[in-house]
Amino acid sequence: MRTLALDQSVAMIPDGASLMIGGFMAVGTPERAIDEIVRQKKRDLTVIANDTAAPGRGIGKLVDAKLMRKAIVSHIGLNPETQRQMMAGELEVELVPQGTLIERVRAGGYGLGGILTQTGIGTTVEEGKRRINVALRADFALVQAFLADYLGNLSYALTARNFNPVMAMAAATVIVCAEHIVPTGVISPDHIMTPAPVVDYLIANS
I need a labelling partner for 177 at 20 to 30 A (CA). Which of 5, 44, 87, 134 fits? Predict the structure, then answer.
């Protein structure tokens, strides 16, 4: 690992590069890096992100400077300049449903060849395409948590955060045993690993 100055780090990015940029409507977006990309005028970029923010904010600065060739995003609804460039044929936009977008990114990070998605099933998008069922679901999931609050938010300890959070997402009914049940608000939002809407039943500690 090396520590670089901002201008040096951006200088490594060639014209025509593809960039994944984090954030949601410019919240959590690396503004300093984007400002430096604009300053160095890196061109023909393909940006993979949740959105293109708004004019003058986050990825919107790249749009304003016309440095992007393509955007792969879940929406552009709050950036009229992105819409204008798309309609004028100046910017290619690939719109991907948000869940599918992040799953495609996750698959890339985990070395998976691709994903299956239910997006489009029952619509004209499905016509002429092969339908495959490989997902595993169950009627019930029995989950062990370290902490649960009275709403059903869960936190796990150490290696118990293995299959528990994933299996809680893949069952029709989720039943939780927790080592400690605490008042709502005790578990920091940043430490909630399974959110309350996923949990159906919490077994009371005797």
Answer: 134
Bridge partner list, 19:
47
d(CA 23, CA 25): 6
Chain center to CA of 30: 16
Q: Identify the DSSP state of 151.
A: T
Q: What is the pTM of this model?
A: 0.77
Residue in 80, 28, 30 with CA at minimum distance from that of residue 52: 80
**pLDDT tens per residue, range 91-126:** 999 999 999 999 899 888 888 887 888 888 889 888
Residue type, 77: G
Q: What is the DSSP annotation of 85-109? A: HHHTTSSEEEE--HHHHHHHHHHHH
Q: Report H helices in the chain.
A: 6-11, 31-40, 60-64, 80-87, 98-110, 164-168
Contacts of 9 (CB under 8 A, 6+ apart): 33, 36
Look at residues 173, 126, 165, 171 and name the one whose alpha carbon lies nearest to residue 144. Answer: 165
**Which pair of tokens denotes residue 5?**
């100055």
